[in-house]
Amino acid sequence: GLSFRSTKGCWATNLSQQCLRGSSRLFVPPSPPVNPEEVKEFQHFISLSKKLLVMTGAGISTESGIPDYRSEKVGLYARTARRPIQHSDFVRSAPIRQRYWARNFVGWPQFSSHRPNPAHWALSTWESLGKLHWLVTQNVDALHTKAGSQRLTELHGCMHRVLCLDCGAQTPREALQERFRVLNPKWGAEAQGLAPDGDVFLSDEQVQSFQVPPCLRCGGPLKPDVVFFGDTVDAAKVDFVHKRVKEADAVLVVGSSLQVYSGYRFILTAWDKKIPIAILNIGPTRSDHLACLKLNSRCGELLPLIDPPEQGSSLQSCC
């Protein structure tokens, strides 16, 4: 459980021991031990690439304690009947925005405190060594940025930024948290369970008195700078990523089932351009039939085992 309450003017967050342990065991599905032969195959794939593009999904961040939606038995869809907020509902309804921000306010201290795990650090190291041509993430948790990645596209935005739906002004999410505190000095809530993307579960009664501040510039409604379900990724960003894919000589998918088309389309582009594809994900993905190498290990266990500086001549013979 998780609670957020006001005590003599000072806000305090109480997390259960389960949350404090990082929750990685809760949110990462079971996987077989790392196979040494698969490590050799994966090393060969990475060594032969000179312009590697990596696409990451929620499965890389579950090992940091952030739940995902689709993992078998442990994802949000498997654990609860609740579903993520839809873009159209958020835009049209002030009460829905109030409910969203109340839940996000309670969950933010925990969500924003998550740290990169060995998989994030490994990819950052690959970039610093010149191995990683570009990194595309479907995640909104900023963990790649925290790990130091710079050649990065956040395909679905980032929860650490907030924008106004009317004027487009952008502000840090942490600054909004303070505005929430000022507007709600006596408001308190208790939540049971964490959801992806900084969300928690609250009852309707708990959120009715929660006050949501407007945009400081124009008074318009505020929204996280992320692509909600039912929304579309900016066309310019899509074109940019397509160009990076076409420049690559290999594509690696890390921790994504590729069920969402916004990421899957780039794998189709790589396949069309005959760019070799490898997938590291626990469980099946939408593109397993397109990959020359599929691994079912934990991202944080396998990626640090790979030695990125080794160079080769061509990946065409690998796949």
UniProtKB/TrEMBL annotation:
Q: How many cofactors are bound and how?
A: Binds 1 zinc ion per subunit.
Q: Which family does it belong to?
A: Belongs to the sirtuin family. Class II subfamily.
Its annotated compartments are: Mitochondrion matrix
Which residues are the active-site ones? H156
Q: Mind telling me what this protein is named?
A: NAD-dependent protein lipoamidase sirtuin-4, mitochondrial
What InterPro entries does this protein map onto? DHS-like_NAD/FAD-binding_dom, NAD-dep_sirtuin_deacylases, Sirtuin, Sirtuin_cat_small_dom_sf, Sirtuin_class_II, Ssirtuin_cat_dom
Question: Which keywords describe this protein according to UniProt?
Answer: Metal-binding, Mitochondrion, NAD, Transferase, Transit peptide, Zinc
- Any other noteworthy remark? According to some authors, ADP-ribosyltransferase activity of sirtuins may be an inefficient side reaction of the deacetylase activity and may not be physiologically relevant.
Q: Which reaction does it catalyse?
A: N(6)-[(R)-lipoyl]-L-lysyl-[protein] + NAD(+) + H2O = 2''-O-lipoyl-ADP-D-ribose + nicotinamide + L-lysyl-[protein]; L-cysteinyl-[protein] + NAD(+) = S-(ADP-D-ribosyl)-L-cysteinyl-[protein] + nicotinamide + H(+); N(6)-biotinyl-L-lysyl-[protein] + NAD(+) + H2O = 2''-O-biotinyl-ADP-D-ribose + nicotinamide + L-lysyl-[protein]; N(6)-acetyl-L-lysyl-[protein] + NAD(+) + H2O = 2''-O-acetyl-ADP-D-ribose + nicotinamide + L-lysyl-[protein]
Q: Name one GO cellular component term.
A: mitochondrial matrix
- The residue ranges of the Deacetylase sirtuin-type domain are 32-319
Q: So what does this one do?
A: Acts as NAD-dependent protein lipoamidase, biotinylase, deacetylase and ADP-ribosyl transferase. Catalyzes more efficiently removal of lipoyl- and biotinyl- than acetyl-lysine modifications. Inhibits the pyruvate dehydrogenase complex (PDH) activity via the enzymatic hydrolysis of the lipoamide cofactor from the E2 component, DLAT, in a phosphorylation-independent manner. Catalyzes the transfer of ADP-ribosyl groups onto target proteins, including mitochondrial GLUD1, inhibiting GLUD1 enzyme activity.
GO molecular function terms listed in the Swiss-Prot or TrEMBL record = histone deacetylase activity, NAD-dependent; lipoamidase activity; NAD+ binding; NAD+ poly-ADP-ribosyltransferase activity; NAD-dependent protein biotinidase activity; NAD-dependent protein lipoamidase activity; zinc ion binding
Kindly list the positions annotated as binding NAD(+). 57-77, 138-141, 255-257, 281-283, 299
Annotated Zn(2+) binding sites: C164, C167, C215, C218
Quaternary structure note = Interacts with GLUD1, IDE and SLC25A5. Interacts with DLAT and PDHX.
What top-level branch of life does the organism fall under? Eukaryota
